[in-house]
Amino acid sequence: MSLRERYLLVCGNVRPEDDPRGCCGRRCPGLREKFKEAIERAGLKATARALQSSCLDECATGPTVCVMPDNVWYAGVTDGDVDEIVASHLKDGRPVARLVRRGG
Fold first, then answer.
1. Is 39 left (phi over 0), alpha (psi -120 to 50) or beta?
2. Are 63 and 76 spatial neighbours (Cβ–Cβ below 8 Å)?
3. Cβ–Cβ contacts within 10 Å for residue 35, how many?
4. Which of 10, 45, 64, 98 could disulfide-pair with 58, CB 3.0 to 4.6 Å?
5. In order along the chain (104 residues), what is the average pLDDT of each group of 10 residues?
6. What is the DSSP letter of 3?
7. What whole-number distance in Å separates Cα of residue 19 and Cα of residue 16?
């Protein structure tokens, strides 16, 4: 197995519906699969991989995607952002500024 250049940690945590923090898994179901498909369409399977993660502790700003080893955290990711993240960040090395989580 070869190591990839980048790994996307896609939060898929699901909390109870009445949890005030919300959860990434309910806000955008199937997000990891959409990233996997986009990575394949872009011809990046050898260099990037989307992994489902448990809670990344960013529930309030989710869905959350962390690109490693770049340590870039995306907040509020939707289906419509997937192709842009793949093309801009994974293919061209430019994070999508409008989605990068701010502050700490």
1. alpha
2. yes
3. 25
4. 64
5. 89 88 85 97 97 90 94 96 98 97 68
6. P
7. 5
Q: Which of 59, 61, 37 is nearest to 48 (CA)?
A: 37
Q: Which residues pair with 72 in a beta bridge?
A: 67
**What's the DSSP call for residue 64?**
-
Strand partners, 100: 74
CB 37 within 8 A of CB 49: no
Following DSSP, what letter does each residue of 8-59 receive, concatenated?
EEEE-----TT-TT--HHHHSTTHHHHHHHHHHHTT-TTTEEEEEES--S-G
pLDDT at 79: 94
Residue 60 is given by DSSP the state: G
Helix (H) or strand (E) holding 82: helix 82-85
